């Protein structure tokens, strides 16, 4: 193919009777003619449709946009080829629209701001080059839905997966700082939010207290903003042990003239207590009792008094046998 083109080129040179020494002048004249032809073509006016994205300006300060609205305007224009070519290369690819010039209509809890293209040709014309005449625009209507801006103080909910080493446990509640944040956004969105969750805090086999920073989950709505993007946490732990107290079982509801003999007469109270509080727990802090019921062969033991220092209480046994003895 290259040999054929080369052969054709030399045949053309011979046909035009151009000497090889004059070839540079020949090519210069060809190039100059091409430039003049392009300039002539681009200087003519054409009717064409161009596309430009919209950039909204001057959002209302007391309201928030409920939904993002990406708008592409299709504009029929009359312009020189130079202007159309400049647009093709994105020399002016966005059209600003001033929301202050939109018409407003209340719709329930929201506000509709709308723009009519046929009534706003002069506004669009100002955004176009002076040598470009706007004839028509689509879409003819742009709707933006806004909601009233609102703020609400909302509690933080910690999402966690925490485990502890043997004989260690959490001491008190996990502390968050702050434990509430201010959420701003459309009123219809903010008013239904009950809590804001953190990302998951994963701590395994803890044997000492832990602290750090945990990010909040991203807002579910783009229109929401948080006063804080993260919170500090403090997980306090303590070492614990098991304890046991043996206490007498008291009786109640015994018929007058009788006494109740229990088997056994004492109950073992098993509990879990912080190692720091172990020596503070005393048997007198507990009180066990059974209520006489003639219809039952065994009576259930109830713990009527217990220490605030302990938890995970277990009784052994949980029931006792009895004999009702006349005095």
Structure description:
Strands 2, 5, 6, 8, 12, 13 and 16 form a 7-stranded mixed sheet that branches. Strands 10, 18, 20, 21, 23 and 24 form a 6-stranded mixed sheet that branches. The chain has helices at 2-15, 23-43, 81-88, 121-127, 187-190, and strands spanning 45-57, 63-65, 72-80, 94-98, 103-107, 110-116, 133-138, 141-157, 160-164, 168-170, 175-177, 180-186, 196-197, 201-206, 210-215, 225-226, 230-235, 237-252, 258-263, 266-274, 287-291, 298-300, 302-305, 310-316, 319-326. It folds into 3 domains: 45-148, RNA Polymerase Alpha Subunit, Chain A, domain 2; 149-238, RNA Polymerase Alpha Subunit, Chain A, domain 2 (Beta Complex), CATH 2.170.120.40; 240-326, RNA Polymerase Alpha Subunit, Chain A, domain 2 (Beta Complex). The chain has 327 residues and is α+β, with helices and mostly antiparallel strands. The chain contains 5 helices and 25 strands.
């Amino acid at each position: 193919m290259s040999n054929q083109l080369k052969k054709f080129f030399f045949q053309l040179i011979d046909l035009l009777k151009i000497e090889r020494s004059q070839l540079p002048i020949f090519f210069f004249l060809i190039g100059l003619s091409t430039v003049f032809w392009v300039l002539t073509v681009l200087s003519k006016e054409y009717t064409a449709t161009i596309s430009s994205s919209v950039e909204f300006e001057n959002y209302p300060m007391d309201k928030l946009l409920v939904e993002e609205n990406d708008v592409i305007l299709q504009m029929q224009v009359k312009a020189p080829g130079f202007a159309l070519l400049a647009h093709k290369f994105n020399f002016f690819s966005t059209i600003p629209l001033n929301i202050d010039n939109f018409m407003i209509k209340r719709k329930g809890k929201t506000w509709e701001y709308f723009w009519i293209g046929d009534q706003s040709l002069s506004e669009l014309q100002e955004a176009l080059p002076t040598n470009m005449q706007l004839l028509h625009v689509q879409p003819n209507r742009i709707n933006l839905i806004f909601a009233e801006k609102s703020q609400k103080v909302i509690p933080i909910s910690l999402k966690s997966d925490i485990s502890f080493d043997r004989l260690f446990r959490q001491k008190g509640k996990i502390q968050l700082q702050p434990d509430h944040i201010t959420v701003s956004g459309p009123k219809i969105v903010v008013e239904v939010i009950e809590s804001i969750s953190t990302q998951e805090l994963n701590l395994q086999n803890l044997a000492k207290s832990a602290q750090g920073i945990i990010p909040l989950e991203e807002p579910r709505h783009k229109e929401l903003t948080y006063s804080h993007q993260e919170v500090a946490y403090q997980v306090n732990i303590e070492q614990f042990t098991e304890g046991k107290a043996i206490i007498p079982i008291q009786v109640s509801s015994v018929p007058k003239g009788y006494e109740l003999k229990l088997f056994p007469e004492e109950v073992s109270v098993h509990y879990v207590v912080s190692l720091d509080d172990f020596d503070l727990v005393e048997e007198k802090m507990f009180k066990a009792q059974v209520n006489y019921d003639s219809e039952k062969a065994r009576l259930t033991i109830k713990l009527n008094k217990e220490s605030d220092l302990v938890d995970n209480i277990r009784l052994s046994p949980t029931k006792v046998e009895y004999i009702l003895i006349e005095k």
